[in-house]
Amino acid sequence: MSDDPVRPAAAQAGRLEIDGVSKTFGDVVALADVSLGVGAGEFVTILGPSGSGKTTLLKVIAGFETAETGSIRVDGSDVTDLDPARRNIGMVFQNYALFPHLSVARNVGYPLAMRGMAKGELASRVADALEMVELGGMAERQPKQLSGGQQQRVALARATVFQPRLLLLDEPFGALDRKLRDQMQLEVRRLQRRLGLTTLFITHDQEEALIMSDRIAVMANGRLQQVGPPLEIYEAPANPFIADFIGESNIFSGRVEAGGEGVLSVRLDGGAAIQVPSRFDLAARVGQRVRVMVRPERFVDLNVGSVPAMVNRIDGLVAESAYVGVSDKYRIATAAGLQVLVRLPSGPSSRRYRPGERICAGFHAADARLIEVE
Asked: How far apart are CA 359 and CA 179, in angstroms?
């Protein structure tokens, strides 16, 4: 999509407030007292594994499911009990939900026709919407004549043509191949920014959430676990579930041996001692058991002569190795029984280890994160 100016819909952007929403299906708790605020024009991703409640939350916001407790407000107006058609919310589904017997133009114009818009204005709005998603020359084609990416653009044009206050995207890239998925992520984000639309995006893909979002809300078992900017979610996960779910991580268990100026000394199960930053919001005393996270890419190869010695060291044998383009991925088995995942930069000047070779990798204390105190 081009970056040419378009008539913005920023004035239509709505502020979303979800307050204490709960929903059950029989004995299954799908949503448990969920509260979340989304600012006007903000792009927020609801991220979680299958069964976490994210799609149920989207359906409650759209009006396709009824909340048992709590409320949904858009720009301060309570829409909790309104029919979906009266909420002025656009939605794009994973399968796009296009009408196969209608042309592209009639698909896009359908929401306007349902609102009784005059034909002249309807045609103008449809033409503008198709130009916006770069499908201006395809108005008379049928959905079956379009590629997956083009069908998705039609679905986006239909969801935004009536200038909704809120746009909901339910895993819209799930049916696309990896390359097209990456392309559409950037295009949708550009479109959202140009229109200024408040957007709630549902996905189970962590990388997708990190790339696209202003903020991420992580869900599990019907509850919000953490809400924050992508950098915070990745670098400072609030609990072991998020540390394990977002990206790759090593989660070590151990006991606090000593505390100093902002640093804890932790004796890991198996004998190795490491230093980690202390946290004011998660106090740990000497003798308490804790869990510590270290991302695989934070390790450096200490077998390289120019690398300074580090207090935090992992010595062991390479159990598995894999070349993944920009890095080499290793699983290191230590004599104490730890299994440690390490990613080291790959390149012509980098050393590559084979299974069975000895390796020593280290990390700075600042690259460790205390995530739980038992």
From this structure: 35
Say if CB 73 and CB 17 are below 8 A apart: yes
Q: What is the pLDDT of residue 307?
A: 64
User: 8 with 160: CB under 8 angstroms?
Assistant: no
- Kindly report the backbone phi and psi dihedral angles of residue 297, in degrees, each rounded to the nearest multiple of 5, phi listed first: -75, -5
| Burial class of residue 71 in the structure, from the number of CB atoms within 10 Å of its CB (0-12 exposed, 13-18 middle, 19+ buried) | middle
Q: What is the pLDDT of residue 85?
A: 87
Compute CA distances 211 → 24, 29, 218, 332, whole Å: 32, 30, 15, 30
> Nearest-CA neighbor of 66 among 54, 79, 85, 52?
79
The residue assigned the tokens 């790339």 is: 211
Which conformational region is residue 41 in: left (phi greater than 0), alpha (psi within -120 to 50 degrees), or beta? left
Phi, psi dihedrals of residue 344, rounded to the nearest 5°: -120, 145
Interatomic CA distance for residues 36 and 72, integer angstroms: 10
Report the largest interatomic distance among the alpha carbons of the chain, rounded to a whole angstrom. 76
Distance between CA 288 and CA 111 in Å, rounded?
59
pLDDT of residue 7: 40
234, 210 contact by CB (below 8 A): yes
Q: How far is CA 118 from the centre of its chain?
A: 40
DSSP β-ladder status, 358-363 and 16-25: unpaired
C-beta of residue 22 within 8 angstroms of C-beta of residue 32: yes
Backbone φ and ψ for 159, nearest 5 degrees, come out as: -75, -20
Tokens of 362: 């280290």
Whole-angstrom Cα distance, residue 236 to residue 279? Answer: 11
Pick out the chain residues at pLDDT < 50. 1-11
CA dist., res. 163 & res. 333, Å (int): 56
pLDDT at position 13 is: 76
Q: Tell me, what's the pLDDT at 306?
A: 65
Q: What angle do CA 98, 73, 197 make, to 5 degrees?
A: 50
pLDDT at residue 11, rounded to an integer: 42
Q: Which residue has the tokens 């809120």?
A: 166
C-alpha 41/C-alpha 128 separation (Å) is: 21
